[in-house]
Amino acid sequence: MAVNFETRGPIALFTLDRPEARNAVNHEVSQELEAHLDSFESDPNLWVGILKAEGKVFCAGADLKSVSQGKRIETDKGGFAGLARYPRTKPLIAAVDGAALAGGLEIVLSCDLVVASSSARFGIPEVKRSLIAGAGGLFRLPAAIAKNVAMELALTGDPISAERAFSLGLVNELCETGTVVDASIALAQRITANAPIAVRESREVILETLGVPEADGWAITKTHFRNVVKTEDFKEGPLAFVEKRDPVWKGR
């Protein structure tokens, strides 16, 4: 297996497991990760995902051996790694303990939150090989950090440290090497303490309103708020507050 999948309560863990190949994305990685994402999305008991990797490198990008053999490293549904264009509805956290370069950074940018260790590095070095970052990096990176810094990464191809990525807002939480999975699970648990549908709808509003006029933002928010009002959990939240107890979310 190139990608492992396990669950811990409402949390799903996806693990890139090709450490001998620096977790480079080949045909198998893309196919398997997409299949696991299908399982994650279709399971109502799974609310948040964590994407991590075995070995000292998070992901070095595309597997050029696979490319040279004419094998597809994209899927029709999810695109690069089966993830870059996957139509997700649930939050996904990237747990980065090592270098995330080229397509590796584009995998990170496909996630919603990032926890990184001090060993992490981030970069899109494609121009050093007369390529461009074609899996979303060139438009997702300037949406995540300042345009001028994104331009620096794209034009020089040089990576940045975890500390700089944290200061730029690319990384949500910085931790020590070897603790990134535990830190990611702790972050996931902070999310799963909340109503899952409200979390998903809030995520969607943020994504849909990036760069749109304020009038559109109001309309989009109203639409998703209506989706939340229709749920059983919408009644449970206020009731639990009045009864001074923790809410019991049903995810419906």
Q: Could you characterize what this model shows?
A:
With 252 residues, the protein is α/β, with parallel strands linked by helices. The protein has 2 domains: 3-192, Alpha-Beta Complex (2-enoyl-CoA Hydratase, Chain A, domain 1); 196-242, Lyase 2-enoyl-coa Hydratase, Chain  A, domain 2, CATH 1.10.12. Helices cover 43% and strands 18% of the residues. It is built from 10 helices and 12 strands. The protein has helices at 27-42, 64-68, 103-110, 137-144, 147-156, 162-168, 180-192, 196-209, 214-229, 232-242, and strands at 3-8, 11-16, 48-53, 57-59, 74-75, 79-80, 92-96, 99-101, 113-117, 121-123, 160-161, 173-175. The strands form 3 sheets. The chain has a 6-stranded mixed β-sheet, sandwiched between helices. Strand 1 (3-8) and strand 2 form a beta hairpin. Helix 3 (103-110) packs across helix 4 and helix 8 (196-209) runs antiparallel to helix 9 (214-229). The longest helix is centred in the first third of the chain and has 16 residues, at 27-42. The chain is globular.
Provide key terms for this protein.
252 residues; Lyase 2-enoyl-coa Hydratase, Chain  A, domain 2; four-stranded mixed sheet; 18% strand; 10 helices; 2 domains; alpha/beta; single chain; 2-enoyl-CoA Hydratase, Chain A, domain 1; six-stranded mixed sheet
